[in-house]
Specification:
Layout (H helix, E strand, L loop, with lengths): L6 E3 L2 E3 L3 E7 L6 H14 L3 E3 L17 H14 L3 E4 L6 H6 L4 E4 L7 H8 L5 E4 L6 H13 L5 E5 L14 H8 L4 E3 L1 H5 L5 H11 L3 E5 L17 H17 L3 E2 L1
Parallel strand pairs: 3-4, 3-10, 3-11, 4-5, 5-6, 6-7, 7-8, 8-9, 9-10
Antiparallel strand pairs: 1-2
């Protein structure tokens, strides 16, 4: 495949020199919360709104998301800002809900990277897919999972490096970007929030992602991280997100990327 794939998400391009920032809260918590955060990250330069409606959590006692109501609130925020939305699909049963909500990009989380029946199901949809690398998966395994989606007829796959599990608890495999660029034509984005797990590390990792050739970023931003129902420790405040975007914009220009 001689040319880089460019994936269009609601009019915003990822890949082929186009750089997209996806941002929003880990979990959708209320209409006021998701709408406010959507407006703030959009004003700073984020083109795609992220937010979790269905949440896979390590503990069964943790907040599992607002589920169908969360999808409705994401739609409400989209009406206000015009931003396309990306949110995680956890199983085949929820696909009709996502289709009805006209989700602009479906996220397949790290825990489902090798859920092959789910991959084949989203491969049959005409919806872009954000495929996250599994916590201990090789790059070849990630690419093969992408092939499951594309083999069903959906070429619009974006790969996401979100950190891997090693002896350290905050580990971003930054070398995955150039290697995946060598192995495949698909866009590659970095999720520094999950890789670090700590908010103070996110801006530095975001800068590194741009420098190493990533096609986008996925960053968690919350209006009040201390009171977030999930992943507050790794979430930026809107003001911190503003500062991050002001840092990477000249860097993107230096490396010849177009913020889209």
């Amino acid at each position: 495949h001689p040319d880089d794939t460019v994936v269009d998400v609601g009019g915003h391009k990822i890949g082929g020199g186009y750089f997209a920032v996806m941002s929003g809260p880990c979990s959708v918590e209320s209409k006021e919360q998701i709408t406010y955060v959507a407006q703030r990250v959009q004003a700073a330069g984020a083109s795609i709104l992220r937010g979790g409606a269905f949440k896979p959590r390590t503990s069964p006692y943790s907040f599992q998301g607002l589920r169908a109501e969360g999808l409705e609130l994401l739609q409400e925020a989209r009406k206000v800002t015009g931003q396309p939305i990306v949110t995680e699909l956890m199983n085949n049963e929820h696909i009709p809900l996502f289709v009805d909500a006209k989700v602009d990009m479906i996220q397949i989380g790290a825990r489902n990277m090798q859920n092959f029946e789910l991959l084949k199901a989203v491969g049959k949809l005409n919806v872009p897919v954000l495929l996250k690398r599994g916590l201990s998966s090789t790059l070849e395994e990630l690419v093969m999972s992408a092939e499951y989606i594309m083999a069903e007829g959906n070429p619009n796959v974006v790969l996401c490096e979100r950190g891997i599990r090693t002896f350290e608890t905050s580990m971003l495999d930054i070398s995955a970007v150039p290697m995946l660029k060598k192995m495949t034509h698909l866009p590659v984005v970095i999720d520094p929030s999950h890789a670090a797990g700590i908010a103070f590390m996110v801006p530095a990792l975001a800068q590194a992602a741009v420098a190493v050739g990533a096609d986008g970023l996925m960053i968690e931003t919350h209006n009040d991280p201390a009171k977030a129902k999930s992943d507050g420790a790794q979430s930026l405040t809107p003001d911190q997100f503003d500062a991050l975007m002001n840092t990477i914009k000249p860097e993107l220009e230096f490396f010849g990327k177009t913020l889209n």
